[in-house]
Amino acid sequence: MTNLTRTACTACGSTETRLSRWRSHDERVSNPGLHPFRCGQCGHRFLARAGAPAGRRKWPMVVAGAAALLVLAIVGATLFVVAGDEHAMDDAAQIAAVAPNLEAARNGDPEAQFRLARAALLDPERSKEATREAIEWLQRAAEAGHTGAMIHLGKLYKSGIGTPQNYDLAVRWLGDAARAGSAEGMVEFGRLHRSGVGVKQDAVQAYVWFNRAAAALNMEGVQERDSIAIKLAPEDLKRAQALSLQDEAPQQAEGSARAQRAASILPANTQP
Question: How far apart are CA 162 and CA 126, in angstroms?
Answer without folding.
Answer: 11
